[in-house]
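Sanity check

After download, print the first record. It should look like this:
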Amino acid sequence: MFGGAKPTKGGILSKLKHYTTPPVLKVVYSSLIHPYLNYSIFNWGRASNATIQPLIKLQNKAIRIINPTNTGSLEEHFQHLNILCLPKLYSFSVGKFMMHSYHNKLLPNHFDEYFVPLSSIHYHSTRLATSKDLFLPRVDSSSGKCSLKFIGPKVWSSIPDNIKFSTTFTFKWKLKKHLLHEKISQS
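Expected structure tokens:
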């Protein structure tokens, strides 16, 4: 069918764009590319930028193929298609972990002391004591900044309170909507 050569997934999208519509291309993206980006992102998503940059470039290329309009920024293409870029997809998975697993106490017992709520540090009435925020530990190494103990509270504190206090049912939907409209930080 393809002349004996095995096409890449990006190649399939670029070949299909001549024969089908953008909604069908989005379904193909969701079937062939998104599962590879999402699989175990919780573990490999904190890798170095040099490691992740080729994946970001491939995802950007796929998004431009699906949404062929040349107007607007790449972020607007992601928003129009309702797809999270790779760094935001990682933040989404960490946010889900922190909300669903940690705050609903579904983790093993050794995680009880892994994250420290700010309410346990502030024993008097402060704004932070009433929030669901977590203490951000001090780390000195780059590997420490990639640990879940550091990234979990960092991502969790970047989520607005109205999303944190939402029900588990609406949390994922609100978080995705928030991340879609948030600018990507260059840190």
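If your output differs, re-run the checksum step. Summary of this record's structure: DSSP finds eleven helices and no strands in the chain.
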